[in-house]
Each structure stands twice: as C-alpha cells, then as structure tokens.
Specification:
heterodimer, A: 114 residues, alpha+beta, three-stranded antiparallel beta sheet, 5 strands, B: mainly beta, four-stranded antiparallel beta sheet, rod-shaped
Chain lengths: 114, 245
C-alpha cells in the first residue's frame, strides 16, 4: 500500500501529494516521508489533510474538479453535487447562440481563430 | 631451476641452485663452468634490473620507499601533479586537489571507467564567459522528471514527490533543494498532436518556484488561460531544471 496525502483547499477542492518511493529514507516511515515532502510546500502547511491509499484514488480525472474528501474524512470521492466548471470560452459560445446576423457570426468566428 | 656449477643460469625464469664445492685432493676440480654459471647469473640479474635502477637515489631500496609502503601499497603522496596540485590516496579513493587559480584539469577518457568514476562533484560556477565545452557546477541538470497527469513519476532525477493540484496543475518537489529561487525550469507536455488540451507548459508565475518546489502548468491551446491536462493515449509532463544548488 502506498500512501498519498490529500489536502483540502478552502473551497473544498483537493490537492494530492504523491511520493516517489525511491527517495524515501532507509529508516523513514511513509508518514514521515509525507511530512518531509509536505514541508517543502508552504502553501500546504495550513491545509487540513487525510492520508489515503493511492489505490483508492479515483481512476479517472474526468471529474477531477469534483474530487472531495468524504464527510468521514476517510477517503477521496467524486462528489456528484459539484457542478462542472464553465467552458473556458463560454462567453463566446453564448454570443454564438445569440448571434442573428451574418456579420455577427463573422465577427465571432474571427475571435475563434485568433 | 639451474645449477650454477653447470655453467648456466635459469634466472629470471627460475631460481638457481649453487651446491657447495669441496677442497682437497679428493675435492672438486675448479672448472670454467663454475665461473661461467655465476657470471651468467650476474648478467641475468643486471638485465632484469636494467641500468641505473636506483635513479637519483642512493640505492634501489631508497627509490622504492619513495613510492611504496613496506607492504607494497602505494604511498598517498606519491603522485605529484606539479605546482600546488596534489593527489592523495586513501581507502581506494584518489582525491585530486588543485589550486584555485587552476583553470582546467584534463583527464583523458581512457583513464575513466564506470567502475571507478561513480560520481563527480563540481564546485566551480561558470565565469562570466564560460569556457568552451567545460562543465561547471551550474551547467548541469539538477532535476528532471517525466510524470503522469495523476502525479505518478515514471522516472526522475532529484524529484521526491509530485503534488497534483488539479487539472493541468502540479508541484514538483525537489529532493535536494536549490540554492536560490532563480533556477530555470523547462516544462513541456507529452500530448496528442491534435488535442487542444494541455498543449503548452509553463512555470506558474502566480506561484513562483521556491528552493524546494516548483509549480508547473499545462495550458490549453485557445489562449484562455485555463490549465488543461495533456490528453491522448500516453499523456505525460516533462520537467527539467538547471541552477545553483
């Protein structure tokens, strides 16, 4: 079993620390190794965390934005209640939906190929 | 093994014998072979030693004592490289000490084998105008990794862990820290050629590198400023860092 450390951001999203086993000290426990690596990132120090078996991490990153620590704080789950993030060009897509003239469409297409 | 009394020597191939001769009426008759055998042995010894085996010292023993200990091992101060350069030897390790003013040390490739040259420590940083084809402490790669989008490391140098911060967003943690935060990092995604996701790699300017970690992003091709994972059949992220340690 390999442990990963899951940190919870203030908005509930998570960051997952994955160890490189070959850098673990001879007499170092996995938890000690996680502590050592956590200390390298100051922005992680203030976050709550839970250590989980890496085998229990979600296998797909399709819903990476919805990864959350479960309420019991024992596992990492994909929370179906987390909405998908908007498309990065949602404003452009909305403008395409609302376009009613050829000139408007031409203008939007020029933005698309920029 | 040859009998010197027979007029020949087997040296240096074998050691000779010299049986005692006896005097008196019933003793041995002195023959030329008796002298010839000893003469041949002396010539064989001279040939084996060569000319002037003591060199500039008083005798061979003195000359050997310059280089060898009594047990035949090499004396630590025997190799003198000239000037204030010295070579010492202890426990199977040669240490070369050169003066600070020395600008280069030449080693021929023939003297280096993987069995004896396991690691080289460079301590000299490059001058303002680096020499051509010269290796300096700040001109070698200090860390690299190829990792999967979930942070699993395929292979690395000096990368002890990866933090998966989210889509297209990772922190690379260095096993041995850099001396400053001004090291250079190259990030590039391994991506499906026709994918718009994760097409370019960048160091996160919003979270600049520290001596112990560097946050990297892979961005989409649309220039929206949104981080995206590389995609395709074998998505990976490649990171290389060079700087002072």
């Amino acid at each position: 079993m390999a442990l990963g450390r899951v940190f919870t951001n203030p908005d509930g999203s998570v960051r997952v620390l994955r160890l490189n086993a070959r850098h673990r000290g001879v007499e170092e426990t996995e938890t000690q190794f996680l502590e050592r690596e956590t200390a390298k990132q100051a922005d992680l120090m203030a976050l709550s965390f839970v250590d989980v078996d890496e085998a229990q991490l979600p296998s797909s990153r399709m819903k990476r934005h919805a990864w959350r620590v479960n309420p019991a704080r024992t596992a990492l789950i994909v929370d179906p209640g987390v909405p998908d993030p908007p498309h990065p060009r949602q404003a452009l897509l909305d403008a395409l939906d609302q376009a009613t003239t050829i000139d408007q469409l031409k203008g939007l297409m020029k933005q698309m190929v920029r | 093994m040859a009998n010197l009394n027979a007029g020949t020597t087997g040296y240096p191939g074998t050691l000779d014998t010299s049986p005692d001769l006896t005097d008196g009426s019933s003793g041995d008759e002195i023959l030329s072979a008796h002298h010839d055998g000893r003469g041949a042995a002396i010539v064989a010894v001279e040939t084996e030693l060569g000319t002037d085996p003591a060199g500039s010292t008083t005798d061979v023993k003195t000359r050997l004592a310059v280089a060898l200990n009594d047990d035949g091992t090499v004396k630590s101060a025997v190799i003198v490289a000239g000037g204030s350069t010295s070579v010492s030897y202890s426990g199977g390790v040669f240490t070369i000490t050169v003066p600070a003013t020395l600008t280069s040390v030449a080693m021929t490739q023939a003297t280096i084998t993987s069995a004896v040259l396991r690691a080289v420590t460079l301590t000299t940083v490059a001058p303002s105008t680096p020499g051509a084809s010269v290796l300096y402490s700040d001109s070698i790669v200090k860390g690299w990794a190829r990792f999967q989008v979930d942070g699993t490391i395929d292979d690395d140098l000096n990368v002890s862990s990866i933090t998966d911060n989210g889509i297209g967003d990772w922190t690379v943690n260095w096993a041995t820290a850099f001396a400053s935060t001004t090291y250079a990092v190259v990030v590039t995604p391994q991506n499906s050629p026709n994918s718009a996701d994760g097409r370019s790699g960048t160091v996160d300017s919003g979270n600049p590198p520290t001596t112990t970690a560097c946050r990297v992003l892979t961005m989409d091709a649309a220039g929206t400023g949104v981080a995206r994972d590389p995609t395709g059949t074998n998505p990976r992220v490649h990171v290389i860092a060079i700087g002072d340690q």
